[in-house]
Amino acid sequence: MKLTPDARGVFPIAPTPFFDDGAIDFASIDRLADFYAACGSAGVTVLGQLGEAAKLEHSESVEVATRMIRRMAGRPVVVGVSAPGFAAMRALTQEVMDAGAAGVMIAPPNTLRTDDQIVGYYRQAAEAIGADVPFVIQDYPLTFSVQMTPGVIRRIVTELASCAMLKHEDWPGLEKIAQLREWEREGVMRHISILCGNGGLFLDYEMERGADGANTGYCFPDMLCDVVRLSAAGQREAAHDRFDAHLPLLRYEQQPGVGLAVRKHVLMRRGLLASSAQRKPAAAISKTALAEVEHLLGRLAKHDARAQLPARR
Amino acid sequence: MKLTPDARGVFPIAPTPFFDDGAIDFASIDRLADFYAACGSAGVTVLGQLGEAAKLEHSESVEVATRMIRRMAGRPVVVGVSAPGFAAMRALTQEVMDAGAAGVMIAPPNTLRTDDQIVGYYRQAAEAIGADVPFVIQDYPLTFSVQMTPGVIRRIVTELASCAMLKHEDWPGLEKIAQLREWEREGVMRHISILCGNGGLFLDYEMERGADGANTGYCFPDMLCDVVRLSAAGQREAAHDRFDAHLPLLRYEQQPGVGLAVRKHVLMRRGLLASSAQRKPAAAISKTALAEVEHLLGRLAKHDARAQLPARR
Amino acid sequence: MKLTPDARGVFPIAPTPFFDDGAIDFASIDRLADFYAACGSAGVTVLGQLGEAAKLEHSESVEVATRMIRRMAGRPVVVGVSAPGFAAMRALTQEVMDAGAAGVMIAPPNTLRTDDQIVGYYRQAAEAIGADVPFVIQDYPLTFSVQMTPGVIRRIVTELASCAMLKHEDWPGLEKIAQLREWEREGVMRHISILCGNGGLFLDYEMERGADGANTGYCFPDMLCDVVRLSAAGQREAAHDRFDAHLPLLRYEQQPGVGLAVRKHVLMRRGLLASSAQRKPAAAISKTALAEVEHLLGRLAKHDARAQLPARR
Amino acid sequence: MKLTPDARGVFPIAPTPFFDDGAIDFASIDRLADFYAACGSAGVTVLGQLGEAAKLEHSESVEVATRMIRRMAGRPVVVGVSAPGFAAMRALTQEVMDAGAAGVMIAPPNTLRTDDQIVGYYRQAAEAIGADVPFVIQDYPLTFSVQMTPGVIRRIVTELASCAMLKHEDWPGLEKIAQLREWEREGVMRHISILCGNGGLFLDYEMERGADGANTGYCFPDMLCDVVRLSAAGQREAAHDRFDAHLPLLRYEQQPGVGLAVRKHVLMRRGLLASSAQRKPAAAISKTALAEVEHLLGRLAKHDARAQLPARR
Fold first, then answer.
1. For FRET with C130, which of B5, B32, B193, B274 sits at 20 to 30 Å CA-CA?
2. Is residue A294 part of a domain?
3. What was the ipTM of the complex prediction?
4. What is the pTM of this model?
5. What count of CB pairs under 8 Å joins A to D?
């Protein structure tokens, strides 16, 4: 089952679970998969920016992806294959597609500047992985320093039939979504799926602007599912109420470097990860920061019972 | 009256008010000053990054600063004097200090990379403006691409007696505040004022980490004053409640480029600016975005009566 | 007399002469002007990147430009007016054009990324300075981090009739010149003058690719005039011989930061500047480096008598 | 035999030879090795920035390194192991060290900014590869956007005993070499080998400043050997004469992107590579550029008989 431009809903970005000694914790991958399915995720993305993909050896990457694919049992799994060269990208893509992945996600190298360079890069990448492999454009200027105008995205979508989805995390990005959807309505660009990243910081209004869902790793993917569902059902204020209750924590998780530590910590607190360990290099998290997270969870619990967690060990 | 390292409270970053034709609206400067004073601001900063300083001619910059200084009637006014060269920086500094400014704010040029380059730049800048002029370090890596470690800030503070304040807007930055305050407690760094920027996105926890207040332009500076006051008074949950109610709008205002348009629009809606006009180049704001801002104000008004504004003209 | 798209030959980039105390040395401006004219320069550019423009106050910039305009007595003088905002750019442009400048040079701010941002910036700049003011695009990615494709330059040239010249200093850039000239031949782009910068490092082949001349500050502008003249006259090997003899020194002068010190030192050694002083901040030059420059001059003198200079004071 | 801080001479940066279909051409690796040895190279570096390392799969990288190690028969081979994560870096290091490599070269990721980040990165990298593996710091700000002060290099050298060499390609860099050597003389920094990159553009004076040799890929490594030998022997003018004769071509080869195509073309013309093919993505080289290279070779041949090549096929 391959990723299509009609994909909708939430594709959580899965962290890669490690034990404290750095070994991969496959049982936690299973728990994450079961949890994602249970809360209504449409699919999942592994080995993204926050999946610590660069810290895995090639064979480990394949194992992590394969484990998630099996456990998701038919729900589409997208695999991040961004690499400094096309040889490694092609090799990883072939193995995970053979293992049943639905598609791959490709981030631009941060040396790209001009419109032509960006389009040219995706053209070469699509050729390298094969025209039959659906791919996701990762548009994340804050991290990659690559700025894609709506026009550049349209060029990629128009030229490359295997482009199925935009992982939208431009900032600001509301007008970008609006522009792409307007071009679709005008018939000058074919439809693609637009799922939103950026930790979900603007998900409430992104859904109203035409996004199809979320594709991010916030530690309450169940909230993301709620907001996407409520928004799609036209329950605007309910969607905002749910979103706003989580915004203080979500904002806290958005801190570069620290964010992943917060995310893994909360997922551990929720019983989904056995450990919050990251492989090196990893940003440390201070005791004060952990106390702040507990404080945020305590305040959130007044609005969302899922944040009522057993006391820390 | 000069800025001192003991400054505390809120120094709003004032926008520069323009009429629709681009002329400076001095009456709105007066209104802003009166409003800042009325809601308990300790001082104000003009000609900052979002004060459209680069769009003013030299004489206009002096006029804007002078007007604010007069109307603030004794409360300290800090003036942004960042410039591509020290000649222009020195010239503006001398004129605004003669006019009664309390100090100046200096951002690093985005070409600085190494620790020594950063310290060297502030050394030369402090010499250029004169050792008797208190200055504020603007630490805003997201915009300036210059990363200052706590150690670099300590070097500047230790070497340059005229450094009075840090406008802290690193991201993440909570641990940076904690580190600087720890050094103060250990006696290895003298005390300076730390006021927080970044639109206030982390003000709630920044106050708990040791910040002295806020130095940012969020369109409800009265909320910033509330949070700083409540936090300083030890009313932790009340401070967070007030902050969280504003977070959805505050987060919306944090969008690069669009943010200033939102800020000026809300200040106009609040009756403080005659127009939301910016000088060119300016990011446009769409009708949909304006409707989103109204929606956010409507939701905020349920928690904070100050957001209950008369219907748009 | 205004700059036109038919400009050819050498427009040296003039340094701004200072005395050791930092005061502007107007007599040296006169000497430079006389020297430029005597060696066959077509015009001159002042207040460029290496003219220490950012270290001058506004009134000083006008004075430097005015002095050069008067002394060049009818030869076109282009003035760098790059500024962080359009207000300052407009103000300087009006004053120097009133004083008789032939046109202005505008560098892009280093925040521009996408094609549309670059074209949009020049559109706004051209509007700000007035449609009757000829302007030069400065295309210098190594310093400004802004990458302009040939297509972007064509868009600017086509849209903005007042664009008269490209100061070409992309690296690599030979194919860019070739592409632009091909478009001219195909009739899909109007002709503009292309003068080459980058210290002249590729001037030999740039001329063969279709450049109209040089627009750079190498300390032997007379050599640049020789190469442009010989190349235009079809004396290929003679042009290369002359160029190659200077390449070791020219290469040495190309070092970022240090280069200007070398340039001013050699111009002082040639009797054109009274002092090699720069205003702060300035890269220091070591005794060893000065000895290396003397060594280079000594070796050059075997091929070019103009490098036989009286012993250092 | 492991790399030591006493290494001297020329370590050419070897290109990775490909056939036109993209397959690795191992016979050309052998020819390169024999040639490097014959012209007096002290060692060789493979899988550097211009070795197209990012375009190889892991197993290919090991094969290329192993082939060169065997053929170099005892001369030290350094292997570039820069990678986005430490897992891949460690894996490649272990395999090539097992195969007989003398050490590894590590470039900093282009996200590093502060002094502490740079030192911290090398600390973690050295731990990841193992304290018994000699490593080379690659200091190349123009490509990596990471600026290392002399002080940062001293910190790395002092803290990490396995640091054996600096591949120096800062620009400008003459004073950096001088500073490091001064610290050695003062006894405040231990000696390391400093070999120079940057295509060799400043090799003549770098040797005089205290460099131990060259570590770059210019298409006439035999010239690099000449210059290093003559300079070490105190034949200053002869070294410069030899260098200056090559400077026009060397400068031409220094063009980013185009340079590797020029380099592989000349190595093919010299009979060392079977093909000048690069794996994708590769910068194209135009017919005009190829003709310019032939022109440069023709002019060079008047000074250096090694540039007298049989006519192109």
1. B274
2. no
3. 0.97
4. 0.94
5. 57
